[in-house]
Amino acid sequence: MSTATVGRRRGREIGTLVAWRLGVAVPVVAVVATAVFLLAAWSPFDPIYQYFGAGVFSAGDAAIANARVQLGLDDSVWSQLGRWAGGLLSGDLGQSLSFRQPVSTVVGQRLPWTLLLVTVGLVVAVVISLVAGVTAAWRQGGWVDRGVTAVGHTLEGLPPFVLALGAIAVFAVAWPVLPVAGLTDAGAAPTVDQVTRHLVLPAVVLGVSQTPWLVLHVRSSLLGALDEDHVTGARARGLPERVVMLRHALPTALLPFVTVLGNRLPELVTGAVLVETVFSWPGIAAAVVTAALSVDFPLLAALTLLTTAAVLLGALLADVAVLVLDPRVSADG
Amino acid sequence: MAELDLRRPVVRAEEPWRPAGRRRPGTLRARATWTGRGRLVAGLVALGLLVAGAVLIPWLGGLDQGAVDYAAVRQPPSLAHPFGTDAVGRDLFLRAFAGLGVSLTVAASCAVISTVIGTLYGAVSGLLGGWPDRLLMRAVDGVNAVPHLLLGIVIVALYRGSVLAVIASIGLTHWTTVARVVRSEVLSLRSRPFVDAAISGGASRRRVLGRHLLPAVVPPAVLSSVLILPHAVWHETALSFLGLGLPPHLASLGNILAEGRQAVLLGSWWIVVFPSVLLAATTLAVAGVAAWWRDRSRPRRRSELAL
Questions:
Q1: Which residues, 6+ apart, have CB-to-CB distance to A313 below 8 Å?
Q2: DSSP characters for chain B?
Q3: CA-to-CA distance for B221 and A174, rounded, in angstroms?
Q4: How far is CA B237 from the centre of its chain?
Q5: Residues A52-109 pLDDT 10s
Q6: Which of A283, B34, B54, B99 could form a disulfide with A114 if both were Cys (CB 3.0 to 4.6 A apart)?
Q7: Which residue in A315, A122, A137 sits closest to A216, CA to CA?
Q8: pTM, whole model, 2 decimals?
Q9: B31 close contact with A: CB closer than 8 A
């Protein structure tokens, strides 16, 4: 088969995969939306308190009844669900009570900062885990390997916020080289310099908190790859060890790593929630906590749906990447 | 005889030839990896000590959850207070171990809920097979697509203010792993010869289920529920840290750590360090026991580990 034919077939496979996954994603997001709404509808929390705030105690019965009718709170759960879903589909995400802004504004303002943090954190995690994982596998059973494995297992047991507190204690309090929290110094404009300085600690903590799993994965999958025939073949041809390791064994080991990376997105989001809260990073993950603390349902629901979509997208991207990188895999949905 | 000299082969100063006997990457023999019983014993002893500490220390020390002592605020570790005191003068030694107990209780309840839901779901899915199985597994994918902590936060935010909400929010989000494990186990068991033998031997459906399938499903189900335990402790801590978990006066690892942010800025490192050490020790102990169990119940995996 010519290269062009293979390329075309590959393109078609990718197209099928994307179409199939999107077809599955739509019902998944719909079910998640319904479930979140029903959770809220059946919860003991009455949205009338959200509407009035503290004013609910001074508002008269007539005003409350009027508001209930206006908000349609006494309609059946299903017609309320339909109204909410209709709003979502037409792009109306509702009004956030805790930020006193439309939900779309809150998300639009905060999403870029979260994307920045998560991207840099992911790069940090990938770099650390590749370097540490390859070094550990290079000398299996050596002291580096045992050190990396032990640290990996210990870090797995520590929540990201403990790491964050430790990092603050060391790099912001004991040896104050980096700012404690926030996006900029108080009152300063968000210039590149300011944001970079404030980004270092959260991004590194987020990256490190994601590392243990990835390091252990790189290590074990590289050890598996070293046993494969093509690696033995490369050695038999007398190639230098560096080439054997990095050009022959590592690419084989990295394919599952890409899939793992794509499927780690939920953990990355979880880490972002905790890290953004500790460092007062003005992203959407911290907004989740704010929304939850004040039972801000429209914002909470929108963020849940957004994250679900992001997780599905991450898994899809990972599978497409594997399909592009590995000529052996054929997509079967 | 200059011509002869010219015809003499030119010998370059080369390195002497050596056999390729250098050590190759990845071929260093693994030293006795810690797969034996030592890991189980270490894990069990550590876990036993932690649980005993969590039960006995608050009881012997006479912990009063509501008591405060403003004369002893933020004291560093000393003989009277081995872990120091917190911002309102409560002894952290007692509170940290009491918190460990609370966290472990919550986590164990979550693990039980997850295991029951997951085992039932997985068994039904695996036994039905065909399109119901595919549908049920798609639903699991759907639950997994929402990050657990986020789903937990949504549940806790809406049903706030009770330990039950926290337990439900963790228990209802972690059954998917158990369901997957049990389903794949049931699927692979269904086609094994001993099941065919039992059926052709005239065993009733109930007997096949109870005597042949269930006992084989129990070990992996128990293993995955044990593995949920540290994860559940982790989640309880995270929820409480965010202020969405257990009521603040109740000593739990998360509630103690929630104070950590202020404490770190004020230099009271002990408020963060000691609860964190307890947390990490618990996770490592459980992981050790679980790893031993996994290697024992899957001999093939043990050989893979020694690669």
A1: none
A2: -HHHHHHSPP---PPPP--S-SPPTT-SPPPS-S-SHHHHHHHHHHHHHHHHHHHHHHHHHT--TT---GGGTTPPP-SSSTT-B-TT--BHHHHHHHHHHHHHHHHHHHHHHHHHHHHHHHHHHHHH-HHHHHHHHHHHHHHHHS-HHHHHHHHHHHT-SSHHHHHHHHHTTSHHHHHHHHHHHHHHHHTSHHHHHHHHTT--HHHIIIIIIHHHHHHHHHHHHHHHHHHHHHHHHHHHHTT-SS-TTS--HHHHHHTHHHHHHTT-THHHHHHHHHHHHHHHHHHHHHHHHHHHH-HHHHHHHT-
A3: 46
A4: 14
A5: 666 666 777 777 777 777 766 777 778 878 888 888 888 777 778 778 788 888 888 8
A6: A283
A7: A137
A8: 0.81
A9: yes
Of B148, B159, B269, the CB nearest to A169: B269
Q: Chain A: nearest CA to B153, how far in angstroms?
A: 7
| Chain A residues lying within 8 Å of B300, measured CB to CB | none
State how far the Cα of B232 lies from the Cα of B205, in Å rounded to an integer. Answer: 36
Cross-chain Cβ contact A227/B307 below 8 Å: yes
| Interface predicted TM-score (ipTM) of this complex, two decimals | 0.82
Please name the residue of chain A whose CA is at the shortest distance from the CA of residue B139.
A28
Going by C-alpha positions, the residue among B87, B115, B85 that lies closest to residue B218 is B115
Q: By CA distance, what is A316's nearest residue in B? A: B145
A269 touches chain B (CB under 8 A): yes
Q: Which of B145, B149, B153 sits opposite A32 (nearest CB)?
A: B145
Residues linked to residue B232 through DSSP beta bridges, in sequence order: none
Number of residue pairs across A and B with CB atoms under 8 Å? 167
- B91 strand-pairing partners: B85
Tell if the CB–CB gap between B20 and A138 is shorter than 8 Å. no
Tokens linked to A302: 């929108």
Q: Which residues of A touch B107 (CB under 8 A)?
A: none
Residue type, B245: G
Tokens 């439900």 belong to B168
Interface check A23 vs B, CB under 8 A: no
C-alpha closest to that of A158 among B279, B74, B10 = B279
Is the separation of the CB atoms in A107 and A284 below 8 Å? yes
pLDDT in tens, B192-230: 888 888 888 888 888 888 888 888 888 888 888 888 888
